[in-house]
Amino acid sequence: MTWKKSFAALVAIILVGGSGWTVYQILDDESAVSPDDSGTAFESTDSNPANRIRFSETQKAHADLATEPVRRTDMQLHRVLPGRFAYDDTKHVAIRMPTDGVLRSVLVKVGDSVDKGDPIAELSSPPIGDARNRILAALSEQKIASKAANWENEIHDGVRVLVDMIRDGQPVEKIEQMVSDQTTGMFGGRLLTAYSKSMLAEKIARSVGSIGDSGAISGRIVRERESDRQQAAAELQATIEQALFETEQAMLNAQADLAGAERKVLIARQTLATLIGSTPTSASGLDLSPNDTDVSRLTVRSPISGTVERRTFSATERVSADEELFVIADTAHLWVEADIRNRDWGSIHVREGDTVSVTVPSVNGEPQTATVHYVGRQVDPQTGAIPLVAQVDNSNGRFRPGQFARVSVPTQMRRDIVTVPRSAVVDLEGIESVFVSDGDGYFPVPVELGEASEQRVEIRQGLSPGQVVVVSGAFLLKSQLLLEGEE
């Protein structure tokens, strides 16, 4: 019995010693884990089989797991600003009542698509009628002045042709034929009479001169006939000069009258254009014919192609000047407006033509790219912010003016840092972690996060370049890990 008691005591000593050694090893392992500055212990759980998840190839295929090696990259940081969609000012028009009047009819409703120049309403306004009457009167004066100017131009041109033929000494018969084909007014007869008298005096003086040389006619008669020739030539020259001067003056006066009439038409059209809020050129289409008695009627037409966004009045309503009738806008492109607060002035550097990212909390979908239209220069005294306006494509009609948005604007660039996709990071009982793959399974590793972009996040501690992390399916691994921990 004594040896049995001795063997039992020896076994007890061995068991007690082994247990003490095991406790010592556990404590020694725990003391080897050094926490980081924040107090979080970053240790690999690769040695803990309980934290390792193993999938078969079939399970991997169904789980749709994807991995990616950890690497050092450059990362563009962004600042997210609150924003709101607005109409593009260059494609947005508020059509207002040009003057007091009555709406005869409204031809469109909210949501209708219109093309530039389409009629959208008709109104009646006495001031517009008065302005049109002035245009019609000015047009009548212009027509009269134009005919008078053309007439005086033709007379002046005909007289010049007649004078040139007279100075060339053309026969009277030929000149008379020309006068019948040209417009010379009263000056044709005067010039022809003076030319005939001059030609006759020239012929008589030449005949008397030949006879006087023979002594058959006294020298006094010869001198009288020469004097008559000279007087007739002088009268012809005076008639020519007077005809050229008077026809030129009449032509210039008629041209001045025509120019004055044309200015009256332009002024009348400008008055109507100012009244209805259009240009003189476009107002020319509003001039009614003299036979149209309804000169106070005005057809309001769309100045742009787009959609009727708002309609304020209905037919037969009396409307005052400058009251808004319609809002028409082309919403294929919208503006998204965001405020850059003073705390972000130094970090946000964008210029016209740069791109920003726009997301809408109320609309599911991928972020939309927008192009910076301008960055304001003046600080809003109420908000202390500078406006940033970007143009976004809205051809699919996803966005509406007034809708809230988030605008992601690039700030600084972080160079050569360890990053992983944001989808790789999961929360495990309050600790940010990623799942690492080593070929034998997947196990979680706690990490310290740094800056983040829209797609990637900086890893300050916990991972090294070259390690393979799960970037798709990490949530499934988290769920599996929690289930295994409950079993």
UniProtKB/TrEMBL annotation:
<dbReference type="Pfam" id="PF25954">
    <property type="entry name" value="Beta-barrel_RND_2"/>
</dbReference>
<comment type="similarity">
    <text>Belongs to the membrane fusion protein (MFP) (TC 8.A.1) family.</text>
</comment>
<dbReference type="GO" id="GO:0016020">
    <property type="term" value="C:membrane"/>
</dbReference>
<dbReference type="InterPro" id="IPR058647">
    <property type="entry name" value="BSH_CzcB-like"/>
</dbReference>
<dbReference type="InterPro" id="IPR058792">
    <property type="entry name" value="Beta-barrel_RND_2"/>
</dbReference>
<dbReference type="Pfam" id="PF25975">
    <property type="entry name" value="CzcB_C"/>
</dbReference>
<dbReference type="InterPro" id="IPR006143">
    <property type="entry name" value="RND_pump_MFP"/>
</dbReference>
<dbReference type="InterPro" id="IPR051909">
    <property type="entry name" value="MFP_Cation_Efflux"/>
</dbReference>
<feature type="domain" description="CzcB-like barrel-sandwich hybrid">
    <location>
        <begin position="92"/>
        <end position="330"/>
    </location>
</feature>
<dbReference type="GO" id="GO:0022857">
    <property type="term" value="F:transmembrane transporter activity"/>
</dbReference>
<dbReference type="Pfam" id="PF25973">
    <property type="entry name" value="BSH_CzcB"/>
</dbReference>
<feature type="domain" description="CusB-like beta-barrel">
    <location>
        <begin position="334"/>
        <end position="410"/>
    </location>
</feature>
<protein>
    <submittedName>
        <fullName>Efflux transporter RND family, MFP subunit</fullName>
    </submittedName>
</protein>
<feature type="domain" description="CzcB-like C-terminal circularly permuted SH3-like">
    <location>
        <begin position="418"/>
        <end position="478"/>
    </location>
</feature>
<dbReference type="GO" id="GO:0060003">
    <property type="term" value="P:copper ion export"/>
</dbReference>
<dbReference type="InterPro" id="IPR058649">
    <property type="entry name" value="CzcB_C"/>
</dbReference>
<dbReference type="GO" id="GO:0015679">
    <property type="term" value="P:plasma membrane copper ion transport"/>
</dbReference>
<keyword id="KW-0813">Transport</keyword>
<dbReference type="GO" id="GO:0030313">
    <property type="term" value="C:cell envelope"/>
</dbReference>
<dbReference type="InterPro" id="IPR011053">
    <property type="entry name" value="Single_hybrid_motif"/>
</dbReference>
